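As a next step, the fold was encoded as tokens, giving this record:
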Amino acid sequence: MPRPIGLLGYGEEGRATLQFLLQQGIREVSIFDREYREDPELGSAARASLKVHSGAGYSRGLEDCGTVFRSPGVRPDLPHLEKARRQGTSVTSATRFFLAVCPARTIGVTGTVGKGTTVALIGEALHAGGIPYRLGGNLGLNPLAFLDGLVAGHVVVLELSSFQLMDLTEDQPHVAVILRTSVEHLDWHRDRSEYLRAKGAMVAADPARQRLVCCADSGGSKEIAGRRLGSALTYSLTGFVPDGLGIVDGQMIRFRGGNSEPICGLETPALPGRFNLENLAAALLAVEQVGLPMQGAVPAMASFRGLPHRLEALGTVNGVECVNDSYATRPDATLAALETYARRPLALILGGSEKHADFSALMDSVCRHPTLRHVSFMGATAERMSRELQAAAHRLALPVVPHQRFPAFDEAFAAGMAACGGDGVLLLSPACASFGLFPNYKVRGERFRTLVEGAREGWAARAALHAP
């Protein structure tokens, strides 16, 4: 690793990368970050050795570094970064460096929806099977934080975003999982093609170097697989696949070489939503590639109840079931959530920051939903979503679902609770990121949890007051 080292971006990943470098005894480090904030946990000696470049011209001087670690939020075609690359600077990232030197087997998971849940399912199965593992990437730690403790017998599972994959050129994971993929982050990526190319960087050209798993029901997933599709393991909720997992008459079947084997025990998984069967299938195929028999992995996966903020059931308040799906920051995720709750009266909380997503399919689904009583819109997208809902109703010749725009999250929650009528479901599934109202989806989800708990306590207090 040529020195000195530059860290381009000093967010969560940049800070973890710095800790790794310091643990390796590397002190020649410069930080390049427009809005640099000092890390209070960094020792005074380490802080004194750092060179910090911040403000408007923060990226000047990258060419003076021997190696630059690019953080995911920084585009790899930043002009000063390209200049440094042309002048001989080695440009890498935490993900690229880790994959190049990791002694363990690696599973990379990407796609537009389901990444965190699939990674967690793989972890549950590996734990039950007694295989030492670590989770990293977006779900878990920066993998450099546990690199020194890995050996050949371990398995590392990485949740990887398009930002992390965009400049991956070699050393791809041993197993690549491409989940259902549409498009996202068009506020950062130039277009859909760039987004899919970034995801596709995880796919190795040589099938002998990597096992590939992809979703046969997703055009985006198959497009990313590209020329590797014919040799990939696939999964489908609609029936037969040449090599992989398909669902026939409600039964998951392992198809292989003209043979078929039922996978028993997944008929009623704890995870809600039909779409989660895709995540289960992807996880099963992934663990099979690292030596864990599918049937041995099923009990752990079938009992897994999900991650926080992903269709998380928070209990009932006066008969209203409250569901926290704050992680649904894309229309695709909210579409899947709507399909899960179609039998009881439903109130939906939608909206957040503007990422220029296409809401047309979502609004069509909102209009067609059989039990949706009310939509509370919030955030920067509220006005556009409201217009698109009305346009969808007009296009489909359907009544406009009752809806209202709210400036505050608490008001949107209260309106949703009232609309459920005491026997329905209140679903927070915003289809948007949280910025502008909350720092991230976790804070938004925790606020929803707090409101649910407060409503439950208030209802209990009123019930006790009027008890005979």
Observations:
- The domain at 95-303 is CATH 3.40.1190.10 (UDP-N-acetylmuramoyl-L-alanine:D-glutamate ligase).
- The mean pLDDT is 93.
